[in-house]
Amino acid sequence: MPRAAIATTLFTALALVLGARAGMAETFAYVGNADSNDISVFKLADNGEMTLVETAAFTGIEKPGASTPLAITPDHRVLIAGVRSQPFQAVSFAIDPKTGLLNHIGNGPLADSMANIATDRGGKVLFSASYGGNKVALNPLPANGVVAEPKQVIPTGLNAHAFLPSPDNRFVFATNLGSDQVLRFAFDASAGSLTPSEPAVKTPEKSGPRHFVFHPDGKFVYLIHELNGDVAAYSYEAGSGAWSEIQRTTALPEGFNGKDSGQKPWAADIHITPDGRFLYASERTTNTLTAYKVDATSGKLTTVGSVPTEKQPRGFNIDPTGRYLAAVGELSDAMTVYAIDQSSGALGKLKSYATGKKPNWVEFLTLQ
Description:
4-stranded antiparallel sheet; single chain; 5-stranded antiparallel sheet; mainly beta; 368 residues
C-alpha cells in the first residue's frame, strides 16, 4: 500500500476513535457540602481524573445543616438536595443534559431535618428519613421537579436513618439506628402511598443499623451498622419483602481494638459496584474504606482489605462503570478518587481534590 494511502487510513482510524470518544457519554460527580450549603460538580475523565466545573449554591438557604443528602431522579433530569436547617427544605436543580451543570428550579418543604432522601423507582415521590425526629415521610414529586408538601409523615422507632425502595418498587425500608431494626412499608406506586408492615429485621442490640444497599440482581441486601461496625448480608425475598441474614462481617480494619484505644466504631456508608462483584464500606473512627468480594451465587462477602481515606468519610460512591470510587471527608473538605481493580476489587488511590465545606454525600451521573 502506498504511503499516502497508509497515512489516509491511519488518519481515518484515528478520527473515528477520537470521534467516538468525543461522542461518549460524560460522567459527573455531585458532592453535597453541608457547611457551605452548595454542591461541587466534578467532571470525571476516562482515566479517573476529576475537574471541578461548577459550585452550585442553595438559593434561599442561609444556615448550614448537619449534612446534605442528595438524590437524582431516575430520568436523570433533576438533582434534589435535602437541607437540615430550618425551614427544612428540598432544593431542586435541573441537570443540563449536555453539560451536567445545575440550574436551580425551586425549593419544596420537608417534614423535618432529614438525614436521607431518595426517590421511588418511578421518580414520582420523594422518601425521607429523620434521625432526630424519629420519623419517615413521603412527598409527591411533580413533573416540574420541585418537591410538594408531605403527603405522609409516619412515626418510627428511634433514629430513622435511611429510607429506600426495593428494586421492584413494592416495598420501602427504613433503618432505625437507635431501635436496632429495619422497618418495612408496602408501597403503592400508583396511589403514591405507604402502608406500615411488620419490621423486616431486628439487628443485634446497640448495633445501630444505618445504611443499606441492594445487590443489582435483587436477591441480596447489605446493611452497615454504625455502632459496632458490622456489615451484614441478607438474602432478599421479593414477594414478601423479607430479609434473612446469611453472614455478618465487619467494616473495621484488621487490628482495630477499641477497648485498648478507647475508640468506638463509627461506620457510615455502603455501596456496591453496578455489576455486583464488589462491595465497599466506610468507617469514620479509623478513616478507612474496606473492600469485599461478593459471591454471585451465595451473596456472601470475602474481605479484600482496607485503605486509608479522607478524614471522617461519611459519604462515598461508585461511578456507573464500576471503575472508580470517590470518597469525601467531612473534616478534610476534600474528595479522594480510587481506581477499583477489576479482578480483585482492591482500591488504588489516584488523586485528591478540594470540595466545599463539610462534604458528606456523593452522587454520580452519566449523561444519556
